[in-house]
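Hi W., the uridine-5'-diphosphate complex you wanted:
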Amino acid sequence: MYKRILLKLSGEQLSGQFDIGIDAELCAWLASEIGKVVGDEIQVVIMVGGGNIVRGVQLAESKGISRVTADHMGMLGTLMNALALADVFNAHGLPTRALSNIVADQVVDQFTHRRAITNLQKERVVIVGGGIGRPYLTTDTAAVSLALEMGCDVVLKATKVDGVYDKDPAKHKDAKRLPTVTFEQAVADNDIMVMDKAAMGLAMEHKLPIVIFDAMQADAIANVAAGEPVGTIIS
Ligand code: UDP
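Structure:
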C-alpha cells in the first residue's frame, strides 16, 4: 500500500461527457472514489491538467498569440480546473484545498511545500493548479516534479486506456496490456505515448514509479492505491 500518492488528472478527463469545460457530476463521482482512500493512511495530492480549456501548443498556432502567452493561458486553465474540483470535492464531503503555482492571491492560496504538507496532515486532499508555473512544460512534468517535492511514493497517471499495450489497442484486437514496463522501454519507445517523455525521464532519474491506469472505473483509484496490480506500472 502506498502512503502518499500523486494523482495526475488531465483536463480532458474532467470534461467527462462534454467536449470542453468541466463535468461537475463526474467530479462528484471522483470525490467519492478518492474519498475511499483518503484517511485510510493514504494521503492524496492531485495535479490537474488543462487540456479541456487551453492547450498551449495548439493555441500558439493561431496568429498573434505567442507560445509563452498561450502557455500562460494554459496554466490559468489548470487553475480554473483546480478551483472547480476543490469546490466540488468539498461540497461532497471530501475535505480539499486548492493551491496554485501561479500567484493569484485574490483567488487561491499559493503553493508552498509547508502549506501542502500541513493540509495533507489534516487529512485533506491537496489539488495543485498552475502546473509548474513556467511555459514550455506540461502538467505531466509538473506532476512528477510535484510528486518528488512532496515525497510521494508513486505517480498515478489516469488515462483513457487502462494501461500500456504491446500495440495500439484501438487498431489491434489482439493487443495485450503489459503489467510492467521499464523506464528505459517507456522513454525509448515512441509508440508509448501515455506520458510526456520529459516527465518519464525525470521519474526515471529519481526512480519514482508511475502507474498508468483508467481512473474512471469504479474502485480503480482505491485498488491502485492499495498496490494491487491495476494498469501498467513503469519502474
Ligand atoms: N502548461 C505550462 N506549464 C506547466 C503546465 C502546463 O505552460 O507547467 C500549459 C501548457 O500550455 C499546457 C496547458 O498548460 O498545454 C495545459 O496543461 P496540459 O496540456 O499538461 O493539460 P492536460 O493535457 O493534462 O489536460
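The first helix runs from residue 11 to 15.

W.
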